[in-house]
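User: Here's a structure from my thesis project, written as structure tokens. My advisor, Dr. K., wants to see whether a designed sequence matches the one we expressed. Can you design one independently, without my sequence as a hint?
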């Protein structure tokens, strides 16, 4: 199982073969994990991924467990 690489930031285009784009605006992208990629925080497969470049972001609490990963430019919210 391939783990998302966030070492030098995160570019979802590198994983487009296994991530389905659900929504996208200029600062927020919501993706579905169709390939079983592993979470960079806990190593388990995740279901959905929210990538936000906003400095401040408010969202409803996702159902079930979730992980947060911070890069220099982005906040990643991965739901399991």
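Assistant: Designed independently from the structure alone:
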């Amino acid at each position: 199982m391939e783990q998302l690489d966030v070492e030098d930031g995160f570019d979802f285009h590198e994983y487009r073969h296994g991530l389905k784009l659900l929504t996208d605006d200029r600062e927020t992208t919501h993706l579905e994990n169709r390939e079983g990629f592993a979470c960079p925080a806990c190593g388990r497969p995740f279901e959905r991924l929210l990538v936000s470049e906003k400095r401040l972001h408010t969202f409803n609490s996702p159902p079930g467990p979730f992980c947060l990963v911070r890069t220099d430019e982005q906040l990643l919210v991965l739901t399991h």
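When you compare it with your expressed construct, this may help: The mean pLDDT is 92.
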